[in-house]
Every structure is written in C-alpha cells, then in structure tokens.
C-alpha cells in the first residue's frame, strides 16, 4: 500500500508569496536583527537555498543597497564569473535600466591567456571587465580567484566597482577571498564563510532588481 | 592598518582536487556510511554547496547510479526545469554519448498553455517531455510541481524515465514532492527535505558524466 503524502493546493502565482511567509515565520525574532533595508535580500537567499545560515552570514557594507540601486538605475551592467549566474539573473528587468549581464569565462581569448599565464580564467575575466569604461556591479558566485584579483585591481585603482557581490562557494581560499574584498572598503554584499554559489549570486542581483521594479513587499 | 589575510598558493588545476581532499577529511567516518558507489555524487554536492547536509539527505534508489550511467551511454537526454541547470550541465561530455540537455520552461507554447490551464509552466514542460520518444533523465532543481506531475505521469505509465534527479528547493510542497517521486519506484536520486536547487541538479548530472569520462577518482 502506498503511503499518503499531503500536497497543499495552491495557485502557481501564490507559491512565492507563501514561501516568503514561511521564511518570515521561521526567522521569527531573528528578522529584527537584520540590517534595515537588507531583509528582502536575506530572505531571497534563504528562499533560493532553503538554508537559514544566510540569516547570519551575509555582510552588507554601509549603504551598499542604496548604492547598488542607484547604480542599476544609472544603467550599470553586471559582470559574473559563471554562465549559470548569468542565466539566472533577470535580464529583462536589468535591460529596462540599460544594463546587461556579462560573463567572459567562456571567451576564447580569456581561456588562451589564462593558460599562457598559468592563472584562472576568472583572473583574466576580471581584467577584461576592468578595461570596460562603464559602471559595473560584480556578481562572483564561484571563483575565489576572481574575488582575490578584484581586490588587487581595486587596491591599484584600476577598477572602481559600484558593488561587489562576493559569494563564491567552496573550500580553498574562499573564506579569505571574501575577507579581502570586505577589507578593500568597496561597496559589497558578502556571504561570509564557505557558503554561496552561482544561485546565490544571481538571487542577490534579482533581489535588488525586484526592489526597484515591483511592490511584492517580500 | 589592514589585517593580514592568508591566501594559499595553489595551481588552478589543483583547486578541485584539494577541495575534495578537504571534504573527505571533514566527512571523516561519515564517508563510510555512504551507499557504496554514491560517494562521488555526494561529495560533488558538498563541493557545490559547501553544505555537509548533503552527506545525510541524499536518497539513492537501489541500482540507480548504474542505471543512470547505462542510460547516458545509450544516449539519454537530460530534461531540466530551469535554464540555470541547463547552463550548468557539462553539455560537451553528454554530447559525446549522443545526449543533449532540454529545457522547455521558456518555450512560448509552454507559457501560453500553462496560463490557459492555470498550472505552472513546469507541469506543461513535463508533458512536453513525456511526448518525446527517447530515453530521458529528469533533473528537477526548482519546481516541486514538476516532480508532482512527473510522479502522476509515471503512475499513469505515460512516461518511463531512466532516472529522476529530484532536488527542488523550497518551502511549499517541496518535501512532499520528493517523497512522491521516491514512492513511484522510478530510479531516482533525491535530496530529501527542503534543500536542493538548480546548482545541485546540474552538479549531480555532472558527477554522473565525470564518473563515465575521467579518472579523477574524487
């Protein structure tokens, strides 16, 4: 005999709203500890991962959300270090403000130069981004080497990002790369510790875009 | 004064290997509790998420790994429920065996039919996949409605997947959808509980592909 498994009847359009209600319920008092203005970003990260660690591990530099929203309004583009993150970012909304999503990781010239120099493609991708003369937001969900190299480029004043979303995931140099980017003083949103990923990078971008464009209120 | 942040010097090609060593070290005795033959999949999920919960929440139906590898060798294609998962799956390796990655979620006919019927696009996508006459692996990282509908199609013998990777993430019907798919008796790999995601769906596909094609041994 098959066991009985309960499915909640819910309209497709209501699923996300209900999810955010559950997240708020389970956060409880912890929601009040979040930095004002960052709640929607934190809750969207939890929604994307079902991992409440994001209620504690997200670092927001002072004023970074307002700075990021201003940058998007001015037409900033988003540079990512994975095709997955590029795929997950809501490009239609970004386009309304004049921005686009860029990822140089699969570019042939990037691969060749990385091989020649014995560095990661992420390092070369960051240099390629630094050569662009326009406002940029970086969404790094995979490569700590991207974040490490970005912090060097920032220190050397070769690049001046409007926001760095520093959420690579993993075990080698990931924790340190995030502390380095915080230490530069650049506007940043960082998932401290080992956790993160392309999904989290895309989700933080989307949270910012939805804050600008709709009235979901969650 | 800036604090000192230590960066480990490591060649790009050695980063993944070192990451898997750290995962094995931290798993310790728990690695021996994993179902033989599933270790590489479990460790790749931990590598993708930095979340050791995957050492405990992954369910593998009896013989599913061998069945999946046989299906890929026979040219099975992979159907996903997000463009992000499609983007993350190693399509070059899959192509060597004759398979491709399919995602119908952005198809215009799917969107229109979903709206007309008041169901999710994921439901219509699963029906579109069911109409294909070829061996299929499903990699569901987002929509519990996809998994719920798949289990109906399986019960009605309208589809006979070679493997279902059931790893939607979230809060509404996610846990139940996973139990439903396990209950069908179809070959499946499922992340029990709320966790999962497009990144986990892609990562399990890639773990299977790498088991077939290389000798990394991690």
From TrEMBL, chains A, B:
Cited Pfam families: CbiC (PF02570)
A GO molecular-function annotation: precorrin-8X methylmutase activity
Enzyme Commission numbers on file: 5.4.1.-
Keyword flag Flavoprotein: no
Domain of life: Bacteria
Keyword line: Cobalamin biosynthesis, Isomerase
Pathway: Cofactor biosynthesis; adenosylcobalamin biosynthesis
Annotated InterPro entries: Cbl_synth_CobH/CbiC, CobH/CbiC_sf
Domain Cobalamin biosynthesis precorrin-8X methylmutase CobH/CbiC, chain residue ranges per copy: 14-211
SUPFAM superfamilies cross-referenced by the UniProt entry: Precorrin-8X methylmutase CbiC/CobH (SSF63965)
GO terms, biological process: cobalamin biosynthetic process
Family classification: Belongs to the CobH/CbiC family.
Identification of the protein by name: Precorrin isomerase
Organism: Eubacterium cellulosolvens (strain ATCC 43171 / JCM 9499 / 6)
